[in-house]
Input
Amino acid sequence: MPEGTLLKVSHIDAFHGSFQALWDVSLSIKPREIVAIIGANGSGKSTLLDTISGLVHPAEGGIEFEGKNISTLDPFRIVDLGISQVPEGRRVFPDLSVMENLFIGSYNRKARSDKAQNLKKVQQLFPVLKARKTQLAKTLSGGEQQMLAIGRSLMSSPKLMLLDEMSLGLAPLIVNELYKVLREIRERGITILFVEQNVRRSLTEADRAYIMETGRIVLSGNVEELREEEKVKKAYFGD
Amino acid sequence: MTLLADLSTPIVMGILLGGLYAVIALGLSLVFGVVKEMNIAHGDLVILGSYLAYTIMTSFGVDPILSLIIGMPLFFGLGFVIQKYLLNRAFKISMDATLIIAFGISIILQNTYQLIWTPMSRGLTTSYALKSFSAGPFFFPFVYLLNFVVAIAVMICLREFLRRTYLGVAIRSAAQDMKAAHLMGINTNRVFAYTFAIGMVLAAVAGVLLGLTFPFTPTSGLPFLIIALGVVVLGGLGSIAGTLIGGIAFGLAQTLGGHFFGVAAQMLVAYTMVLVVLAVIPRGIFGR
Output
């Protein structure tokens, strides 16, 4: 499938215990797209990413990556296939050094042989990670930790990168910088699916977006269309 | 005789003994710190190491230290199997289940030792076990020095392994953040099995050193488990250097306690110190 779909999520339901977090969610992403998932707290965005990553298995429906069904695979198999998640809250390993965090990013078999190349790229994108390579991750600032989390994910040689609330709690200037890096990452051929609460930001940075409410996708389309959509204006721009 | 000269024997003995205690505690600390399992069978597994070396020595005349060439891989495999097929399945139910399984393993081992080796006291009596070395005017048992040297060597190896290899860094990652570890492509169940296996290798080494130093019986595991717990409390979890310091502190408390209050009180002094540390710095001297 050359210009086909990279990721195809079809009608999935997912649960946290007895609570249903996702209802009949479908989406598809083409190679080299940047796609946003927009929604309020608790709308199921993070669960959707965790389901793609294999941390949560869908009760119904399927997930295909490069035409292969991945909905029952363990998280480490999914990383092997080339899907990497930058989780909410960054979750760098606090008591590992910056270098060790990047090193463990290349844990999967395929990434190990590309380690030197990937490290060079990451340090080009984020020179601060080179300057602070021996520091423990917990001593970095929030912005630097987010850079480390993104760098660590790039070390796994991903084809698809999932980012959960990347800009949460960070200064606007740093957020601008991070989004600039995302565009560069896409230029290198990596597809990006990000989750964001900031609607304005999402509708400028992404090519397409899906809008979620209480575990369902309620709207989707190109960002140009969505910006003009009455419902979006009303709900998110206070019009 | 001056007070200092008088104290030099218990001080040197305490420090050297601390090396042995640290090796016994190391496997317990690693498994507890990473897998979050309290392996109350650890003492009995250490004694299994002593019995294995004893059997190899008495049957084939192989030196106990040399027998570790067989003992360590054997323990590694046993540890991997125990974690993968017993404990990994149990902690899907609850952490309490792993505690009960470890308790079960402990009982099974103790009774098996009774059957195979009888309740009689055994020891790894080698040619060098009774040798001593001199420091100034005093003589110290050679095995105490051996314990300490091996302890340092084992700790350096473990430290380098945890810092430089994929598996080592994966073990530390899984200990710090399970979800993030999954997202790095780490199979945490497998990493836990390896962690327990390495804990068992440490138990095999500890068993040989213990057997060279003290006589042991089928029930010797429990007192050494409790000493190991004391060492972990003193040194703090998750630090190799802390475990060594904890071991030395425990050893010193024991020998100095014995020196000042008589042999009968030596363990009382050591455990009192553990309680005081627990009350004042509950995370231990090096704890995070």
About this structure: The two ends of chain A are 42 Å apart (CA to CA). Chain A is about 40% helix and 25% strand. The CA atoms of residues 180 and 205 of chain A lie 9 Å apart.
